[in-house]
TrEMBL record, chain B:
GO terms for cellular component: eukaryotic 43S preinitiation complex; eukaryotic 48S preinitiation complex; eukaryotic translation initiation factor 3 complex. Residues 8-21, 267-286 have a biased composition (Low complexity). Component of the eukaryotic translation initiation factor 3 (eIF-3) complex, which is composed of 13 subunits: EIF3A, EIF3B, EIF3C, EIF3D, EIF3E, EIF3F, EIF3G, EIF3H, EIF3I, EIF3J, EIF3K, EIF3L and EIF3M. The eIF-3 complex appears to include 3 stable modules: module A is composed of EIF3A, EIF3B, EIF3G and EIF3I; module B is composed of EIF3F, EIF3H, and EIF3M; and module C is composed of EIF3C, EIF3D, EIF3E, EIF3K and EIF3L. EIF3C of module C binds EIF3B of module A and EIF3H of module B, thereby linking the three modules. EIF3J is a labile subunit that binds to the eIF-3 complex via EIF3B. This is Eukaryotic translation initiation factor 3 subunit H. Belongs to the eIF-3 subunit H family. Residues 39-170 form the MPN domain. HAMAP family: eIF3h (MF_03007). Keywords: Cytoplasm, Initiation factor, Phosphoprotein, Protein biosynthesis. It is found in: Cytoplasm. InterPro entries: eIF3h, eIF3h_C, JAMM/MPN+_dom, JAMM_MPN+_peptidase_M67A, MPN. One of its GO terms (molecular function) is translation initiation factor activity. Residues 1-34, 263-307 are annotated as: Disordered.
Amino acid sequence: MATPAVPVSAPPATPTPVPAAAPASVPAPTPAPAAAPVPAAAPASSSDPAAAAAATAAPGQTPASAQAPAQTPAPALPGPALPGPFPGGRVVRLHPVILASIVDSYERRNEGAARVIGTLLGTVDKHSVEVTNCFSVPHNESEDEVAVDMEFAKNMYELHKKVSPNELILGWYATGHDITEHSVLIHEYYSREAPNPIHLTVDTSLQNGRMSIKAYVSTLMGVPGRTMGVMFTPLTVKYAYYDTERIGVDLIMKTCFSPNRVIGLSSDLQQVGGASARIQDALSTVLQYAEDVLVSADNTVGRFLMSLVNQVPKIVPDDFETMLNSNINDLLMVTYLANLTQSQIALNEKLVNL
Amino acid sequence: MASRKEGTGSTATSSSSTAGAAGKGKGKGGSGDSAVKQVQIDGLVVFKHYQEEGQGTEVVQGVLLGLVVEDRLEITNCFPFPQHTEDDADFDEVQYQMEMMRSLRHVNIDHLHVGWYQSTYYGSFVTRALLDSQFSYQHAIEESVVLIYDPIKTAQGSLSLKAYRLTPKLMEVCKEKDFSPEALKKANITFEYMFEEVPIVIKNSHLINVLMWELEKKSAVADKHELLSLASSNHLGKNLQLLMDRVDEMSQDIVKYNTYMRNTSKQQQQKHQYQQRRQQENMQRQSRGEPPLPEEDLSKLFKPPQPPARMDSLLIAGQINTYCQNIKEFTAQNLGKLFMAQALQEYNN
């Protein structure tokens, strides 16, 4: 088995202090800013949990992660390049619709089901994997066994393919904050469908007061030639948005603030007002920062502030007046014409109905 | 199509009064005859729409699933239809729909069909096809709505989602399948009264709210604040272009109508003259003692000209109205932005 010290350049704080992980639990973050991915190991058969933890450390270090110790222990750390069959690199880009669907299917789960699972669909490209769609799959899980309706999954996939033929099965998701033994089995099911599937967990039980979203890919581990096990290595999760999605998300965010979680769609000027209020907030934050940090300020921030202030273009007042007036005139003319057209068609209506 | 005044009123005010208006709506029977006073959409549906639209550039159509609760239509899920391609002739839409709904039922998603949705390009959605589809839906399911969303306007910065239903009067006319001018005049339908807009509210469950907070922390702030951008004349130009096209069509329609009127009146005159000549001849014959000529059927001689189809012109008028509304909204926003820019500039000097 590989020792932690062997690989190219292990960062100064090696993860050896990681306590021997119990098979199904996540090791607690170490005092040293651990750069190693924190595996939630679910070994089918692993002789030595400590070896399991160490083995993750081994393939996990690259020269680039020399900077890694300085990074905060985020739930999903920037992963190094895995010399393995994972085709899409180490970043998983999620669209918010996936998470919303997952939460929604969790809310609609059958009685007695502790969690829901489903398939992830999307596209793969050289650097990342983009998950754009998903659907849930009925399954039964008990202490000893797990049954997944793969026929259903296949059917749904066919239907989805008709709408967007570019999507492939990328992996599967599950709610719940842990990876259990059943996950390994389900993962195996999915490896028949897709090469090296991704596993996504969404913690709907809100452990630690947060809904943590993590993605994993499975890797082999263990003693080569002897008992081999499977381990889930985490991946970086990023959120990708189309432009329109971003705006949808912003709007839906507002339901967080409303008492009965209901919002109406706002009218045009209200939206402009809302956007300008947002900018005002941002500006006041920046102003606060500038006032607090007078002497020892960061240069880059200073430059940003400078460019911000210079964004307002310096125009000769008269020129600006003319520009403004001509623009306003244009808009007023268009409004006038639109009103005229509307009254015209109303008149026409009346005439024709005579 | 002017939205119902109460509708716009409640959308414009804050959420609490929207809930209040909904409460009011539940109590009384409602001033209109429509079965649906409000549409409540789950956040999930909004997400799905915008994700689908963001993916492709074609028009996206699909089915809305949900329930009807008293006079509120709750939409809880949706799925898109595949695009029609010419080489896919054997593709059965109905079958696709049935399969999807059956599968969704297995995972406890509402599988009741409550409407359909369509994306639109700059607001040009008032077409015959829309009318027909919505009619068939509304005929089958009393409370169905069509949800129109405009991705281009949304990319500009403001969510543009509207729910429409056919007014009861229009429903009746469509049922008769009689689009002649007389029938339309009898029903007293103006272009404003074709579609009615139903106010929309968005509702999220608590868990989704938690998800929102999570996303908020993890995602970067949107770097493109399109809403406050001043350079939006392109959008306006496009809108105006479409409006001009429609107005041209409208004017052609009016010309047709004018010719029809002229033809009818000319025909009337001809009929009159013919009758007079007949009478004169008859009198002459009588004076000569010959039997009078039989009265010929005037309607066979003078076929009345075909009245122009009124439905199309109604649709065009409706479309023009939508365009004008959009343009007015747009100019209002832009004026606001310009005044803000002025304020900034004044401060600068």
